[in-house]
Amino acid sequence: MLTLFGQDQLEAWLLLEADPNVTQYCERPLYVPDHKPKRVVDFWAGFRDYDELWLVGHKEAADDASDEAVSALRTWAGKHAYKVRQVAPGNANRIFLNNWGMIVRDLSANRRYLGKPLENAVRDCLECPRPLSAICSLLRDHDPVLVRSTTYSLLHMGVIRCPDMASEPLGPASIMELA
After folding, report:
1. What is the DSSP string of 104-160?
2. Which secondary structure element, helix H or strand E, spans residue 78, and what is its range?
3. 151 with 99: CB under 8 angstroms?
4. 3-state SS assignment for residue 178
5. Looking at the predicted structure, is the pLDDT value of residue 62 above 60?
6. 3-class secondary structure, 13
7. 64: pLDDT confidence band, cut at 50, 70 and 90?
8. pLDDT tens digits along 120-177
9. Could you give the CA distance from residue 161 to residue 77 in angstroms, rounded to a whole number?
10. What φ, ψ does residue 119 adopt, rounded to 5°?
11. Average predicted confidence (pLDDT) for the chain
12. Hey, which residues does 31 pair with through a beta bridge?
């Protein structure tokens, strides 16, 4: 279960989902310690070798109190082996975020129907880069929705990549290749 509070947090969450190095995360894990007024930390992100606390940019974040909150968080985080990242999703690439939004929705709907045999079959199709439509054509004995979802799942895990993910809307012509 995930609860997000606004478009910026939604987009920051998509950035977390898009990074295969993120192994786990939690939204709103704590308030900035030792700081008044209270300021929530938007995300904790667990990477393979380190942890980060994410502060997502707020429109009102230009005042002194917010700078003090960031300073207080950095001090506390340094004592507890966390890195602090200030995230401004409004600056993120719209095409990239829209593509990851589509992938997350697709995986949410279909993940329970995916399995290793289809993952292996999709990987086998990618001995050379191919468009998504070609992968579906090569695996025509399988439901094309599940082939697409499996391809997205492998993309999500970082096993394959889509070179045009940030520049073109995801679709049948999107080229997939082994990472």
Report:
1. HHHHHHHGGG--HHHHHHHHHHTTS-EEHHHHHHHTTTS-HHHHHHHHHHHHHHTSE
2. helix 64-79
3. no
4. strand
5. no
6. helix
7. very low
8. 999 999 999 999 999 999 999 999 999 999 999 999 999 999 999 999 999 999 999 9
9. 33
10. -55, -45
11. 91
12. 40
Q: Give 114's contacts (C-beta < 8 A, 6+ positions apart).
A: 146, 149, 150, 153
CATH (one of 3.40.190.10, 1.20.1250.20, 3.40.309.10, 3.40.1350.10) for 7-91: 3.40.1350.10
Residues of the chain with CATH 3.40.1350.10: 7-91
Q: How many CB atoms lie within 10 A of CB 117?
A: 10
What does the block give as tokens for 81? 């082996």
pTM of the model: 0.85
d(CA 165, CA 96): 6
Containing H/E element for 43?
A: strand 40-47
The radius of gyration computed from the CA coordinates of the chain, to the nearest angstrom, equals 19
Residues 37 and 50: beta-carbon distance below 8 Å: no
pLDDT value at position 58? 54
